[in-house]
Task: structure prediction
Amino acid sequence: MSRYILGRIASTGLVLLGVSVLTFFIAHVVPADPVLVALGEHAREDQIAAYRKAYGLDRPVPEQFIVYLGRVVRGDLGTSIRTRRPVGEDLREFMPATIELGGAAWLVALLLGIPAGILSAVYKDRIFDHLSRLGALIGASLPVFWLGLVLLGLFYYRLGWFPGPGRLDVALSPPPLRTGLLLFDAALARDGAVLRNALGHLVLPALTLGLFSTAVIARMTRSAMLEVLYQDYIRTARAKGLQERRVIVLHALKNAMIPTLTIVGISFGSLLSGAVLTETVFAWPGLGRYATASAISLDFPAVMGVTLVVALLYTLVNLGVDLVYARLDPRVRYE
Amino acid sequence: MVVVYALLAVAAPVLAPHSPVDQFLEQRLERPSRTFLLGLDQLGRDILSRILYGARLSLVIGLVVVALGGVVGTAVGVTAGFVGGRLDNALMRVTDIFFAFPSLILAMAIAAALGPSLTHAMVAIAAVTWPVYARLSRAQALVLRRQEFTEAARALGVSETRIILRHIMPNALSPIIVQASFNMGEAILIAAGLSFIGFGAQPPTPEWGVMVSEGRDYITTQWWVPTFPALAILAAVTGFNLLGDGLRDLLDPRLRRR
Result:
């Protein structure tokens, strides 16, 4: 098991190095003039010369990469043209909001997607299965940005059931900053009003963001359960007279969760992608909205900073999934 | 569904009652009626005509992305699987690196580096989708290189390049075709997303994502303005997903046996 863990950590390290190479390539090699992209079209000659010197852009490309890597390792992701602050500082400010939204959406996807997939497989070809599969198909094909607009328009504007865009009503003061996770900080500060309001603000964006992953997880769980339910050992368990519920939960589900786990890890990536659009619609002050605003302003250091950090996060989550996968499936450890 | 979509897209100039940029300003934001079946947008443009022309655009986007990503990915994957060894390792590590990025994030970064335009958006989307083709075709090539017909070709002195092009690639196509179908829908969705945030097609191009973005302020009042383009996206992407499901069921021997 430890050999497998070390192997996965080593290959994750290589992937992270590769991620740095690719972001460097996009930032420095792809644009016609990376300095103008970094500083904007209206930069003065002296600013351009100073930037070139500071970031070694007059040196050979391999040397530039070493300088870039050194800065990234030290946490220096450059300075945002738009906010005029270090990109690292911006990311630290906006990341908790995305983690909170992404976590809530992931929870929605797991709590809705896995049971829907299991029931769909157990009641294959019945009404629930057809409706669930139709729902999953639509969920995987629907533009998330339009869904967000509809939910906001209907449940906030028309019906008034949920609060509007943003993380908290303007009239309420945020709790003292501890983690940046509003729900957590409000709970720590025992501020019930802020906690309830923040939860209310989280519902619609979490449902919007979680829909695509719910659909993917439901489809995968159904497929995995059907594979397992046709296996001989399931037939044996039934022949032995075990209750159907025990057969499904104790025997089928555990093995069906193994391929589903891979999809759960991959769905984290689609949550990060979807956050870009969801946060824009709900004015959610997270990494996605920061990335969009930066991209529109051609704030390149900020865009590349977000890209790099998001890729790092996704890679680490997938490493975690692989390690849990190895724990569940002994065949993986001994390959 | 896909056939209907393709026919509508191709026949748009004939079917569309108006040009996608013609404006009827006195009737702007008019609700769906007999004259304008899907209503008019905020600049008085016929939404039905813009959706039909947008269908052409989305079809082109899908085809370009699939062609670009599919050709590059399949070439890389088949080469990696057939040659094996260090080249296989190196190429698969490269695909791992691309897989480390959530697709819209990487597409946005590349589109930002190249500049906001539809062409750049298509290149960016192809850049995030080629790794899947590489993985699929590599898996096929690993199996096919051990087949007897490959050994026979080698024994006859056929060059490795010719074996890859004439024997491996044509036989590796089944999962590629299935993936291409799913990829068409994915490309349309990502392109619409990029256009929604301003990276991709630019106004007044009748691209569906641009139309939803321009109509977002009217969702609670003139709901038809952002909704009909969104439903067009839903219909197109659903069609390609269903096609992919159907092709997979048809071509996967394990599923056929059940």
